[in-house]
Design brief:
This protein is mainly α and about 725 residues long. It is built from 35 helices and 6 strands.
Length: about 725
């Protein structure tokens, strides 16, 4: 662009030159036309074709070709990922040949709960009546009436339900079939079932949209890696690393309806936009609006998003303190986060957990610190200043969060602090053990780093990490920032790339801490490691390799070595073959539908309650969404059936909840994921007075009278009616 500008300015008097030959002809033509009533046009078909051809070739500039190639590669890797996860899902469950009931049972625990609201909206007489139904729900937490859009993150289901209704009604209007159905013979003396395949089937449509979204996510990863590294090869490294470490990167192919499946792709977009903002010296309003929109789309589907954004704000605060992010840009980013949070608060009908989160409190405190940056300005002691600002941030965030929680009477997220507390101390309580006894909430498996090492992802990221650290340490600007105490606070650095790299390093460390503490959260760590691996192709970091070995050749050798284990991992995933079947639960659900009244109230294990609500529509008193304080209290009462309490005491508490039927599961009575994790052992923490007694569930497995009557029983489930 600079060269082009110079050529235009070479002759400042150009506009006063004699007109060109073409211009002269045009002038003569116009003059002759004054004396004529009509004249012949020079815009012949041949001329128009020549102009159209020139216009076409103008689009084939090198820059446009590069953009086209980039978008084409992004589309290809997106389609590949969509196809890959769809194939894995189909291989695992043979989803295309399941009946409607079997597909619903395949959405276990929280998945079934979320899908039930999609089902409610599409089966309602109209879209808005379905929306009203889930906003005035008395089935999920009987007898309470709750707004599920406020309590749960259900906007994905609301949007997909509208798309499904529009799609099916449109296809019906134009006379196009949207699904194909056939009879499947299940064998083993089981009755045949009808199975439908196509976007006209609700479950099929639902999972297909999720897989398409996660295919788009892979396209974003390619563009993200390309932009961060400045190389198309860097984008491919990100994609290849993701595929080679797929089992550590995502669960979407096994658990499509979980909130992360909808939310995480927008975090990828959000972090890409943030990278662009950090790299660009001057940011425009459109960039901030795009960042805010991606924040909203990330937060709305998932209650955990606020904790991830907290780590992001902390990382940005760190690079601000050491001078890699100027105060004006940082404040613009903070304001964007605050507006996004406020918009989510409105869209979720005043969900108080958003306002009382550490994320919200941190935003306010950091804004105050940055706006009053001269308040803690200690002459000649920049390190002390930074320490005081960090301490102010931590203390202010904790105090503000405590005050807002107390004023609004919110205690829904109190268990989160207790979970972290239990990681470092011997602290235990019922709610904490319900989380930490689940493998996905335990510490990261020791095998996980070894799996990273075998695909060379860990060594490559470690090399990039060390290179960035060395690059920052030898950057004289960093030292001048600390030593030159007279430097103005609002000075803008000439070089912005380093700030964005330091942010990514800090974000990587934050994700690593989360993943080590809670294994489930490696879904943030592994993809970010793949993005960081793209920097192996950065000429800024590894351009020195060109003096000895060509950088693309070096990266290609690394990818070949990665492929040894990476291709094996892909083959291992593709070799997983199965077919979903849960005959015992199918018998249970069929019995409930045909043998109980539509308003019969059930209680039992959280995963089973989700299936009961989804497939039978019966009211339940507890469910798997454990993020609400009142719901946790309800579940504790329901799970007293697996404690060592007396039957009459448990019966009395269940009647207070309005329970009519209890689904008892022997597996929950004896199941132990690790030492101290059977439900009776968990209850011993809350009820030490009954330690040593026989668990009530073991007693009821033999005899249920006089407090309960057995109405249904198979090898896994027993339905007990509470006597009055």
């Amino acid at each position: 662009m600079a060269v082009e500008g110079k050529s235009r300015l070479k002759d400042p008097l150009n506009k006063y030159k004699e007109p060109s030959r073409a211009t002269e002809g045009s002038l003569r033509h116009r003059q002759r036309g004054k004396n004529r009533a009509t004249h012949t046009s020079t815009d012949t078909p041949h001329t128009r074709n020549r102009w159209a051809s020139g216009r076409f070739f103008s689009y084939l500039s090198p820059a446009n070709i590069k953009i086209g190639v980039t978008l084409l590669i992004a589309a290809i890797v997106g389609i590949l990922h969509w196809s890959y996860i769809s194939t894995l899902f189909e291989n695992d469950r043979h989803f295309s040949h399941l009946s409607t009931l079997e597909r619903e049972m395949a959405f276990r625990t929280e998945m079934g709960l979320y899908y039930s609201y999609f089902k409610s909206i599409i089966e309602a007489p109209s879209y808005f009546s379905g929306l009203h139904l889930i906003m005035n729900d008395n089935v999920t937490e009987y007898p309470s009436v709750i707004n599920t859009l406020k309590r749960f993150n259900l906007y994905p289901e609301v949007i997909l339900a509208s798309w499904f209704r529009i799609f099916t009604s449109t296809m019906k209007f134009v006379g196009i079939d949207t699904k194909i159905c056939w009879t499947v013979n299940r064998g083993n003396d089981l009755s045949p079932v009808e199975s439908c395949e196509g976007l006209g089937d609700p479950a099929y449509f639902y999972v297909t949209m999720i897989f398409i979204l996660n295919g788009i996510m892979m396209s974003l990863f390619y563009i993200y890696g390309l932009y961060l590294s400045g190389s198309r090869l860097g984008g491919l490294v990100t994609v290849i690393c993701f595929f080679y470490n797929h089992g550590e990167s995502t669960r979407v192919m096994w658990t499509p309806p979980l909130r992360e499946s909808f939310s995480y792709p927008f975090l990828v977009l959000q972090m890409f936009l943030l990278t662009y903002i950090l790299r660009t010296p001057y940011i425009g309003r459109r960039s901030l609006i795009a960042l805010g929109v991606s924040n909203v789309f990330f937060m709305l589907p998932w209650q955990f998003a606020q904790f991830v954004l907290l780590t992001q704000i902390a990382s940005l605060f760190a690079i601000y303190l050491v001078g890699y992010l100027d105060s004006e840009k940082f404040l613009n980013i903070l304001y964007t986060h605050i507006v996004s949070l406020a918009l989510c608060f409105i869209l979720m009908f005043g969900n108080s957990m958003l306002l009382t989160s550490y994320y919200a409190s941190s935003l306010i405190v950091i804004c105050i610190i940055v706006m009053n940056r001269d308040f803690l300005n200690i002459e000649n002691l920049p390190l002390v200043k930074c320490i005081l600002q960090v301490l102010t941030w931590i203390l202010g965030t904790v105090v503000l969060k405590a005050l807002t929680s107390m004023l609004l009477g919110v205690r829904d997220d109190a268990h989160i602090f207790n979970i972290l507390k239990s990681k470092f101390t011997s602290y235990k309580d019922f709610d904490t053990l319900m989380y930490t006894c689940a493998p996905e909430f335990d510490f990261m498996e020791t095998e996980t780093p070894w799996r990273y090492f075998k695909t060379l992802l860990l060594p490559v990221v470690f090399l990039v990490f060390l290179t960035i650290c060395v690059w920052v340490l030898i950057d004289s600007r960093l030292f001048s920032r600390w030593l030159n105490t007279r430097e103005q606070e609002n000075e803008r650095w000439e070089y912005y790339t380093s700030g964005e790299l330091v942010y990514h390093v800090l974000q990587l460390l934050a994700f690593a801490v989360l993943a080590i503490l809670i294994m489930r959260l490696k879904l943030f760590l592994t993809p970010h490691m793949c993005v960081m691996a793209s920097l192996l192709c950065s000429k800024q970091l590894f351009g020195w390799i060109n003096n000895r070995v060509r950088l693309p050749l070096f990266v290609t050798v690394i990818l070949i070595l990665m492929s040894i284990q990476g291709i094996s991992n892909i083959q291992s995933q593709m070799s997983i073959k199965g077919e979903f079947s849960n005959i015992a639960q199918e018998e249970l659900l069929e019995w409930i539908k045909f043998s109980t009244k539509p308003n019969a109230v059930f209680a039992g294990a959280m995963p089973t309650m989700a299936s009961v609500k989804l497939s039978t529509g019966r009211p339940v008193v507890n469910h798997p969404h454990y993020e609400d304080a009142d719901l946790r209290a309800r579940t504790k009462i329901v799970y007293s059936m697996y404690s060592r309490k007396a039957a009459k005491d448990v019966k009395k508490d269940l009647i207070k909840l309005g329970v009519q039927y209890f689904i008892l599961e022997d597996a929950w009575c004896l199941r132990r994921t690790k030492t101290g994790c059977t439900l009776s052992e968990i209850w011993d923490i809350e009820d030490p007075s009954n330690v040593g007694k026989t668990p009530l569930c073991s007693i009821l497995a033999k005899e249920t009278l006089p407090h309960f009557i057995t109405l249904f029983q198979n090898n896994l489930y027993k339905v007990l009616r509470i006597t009055v």
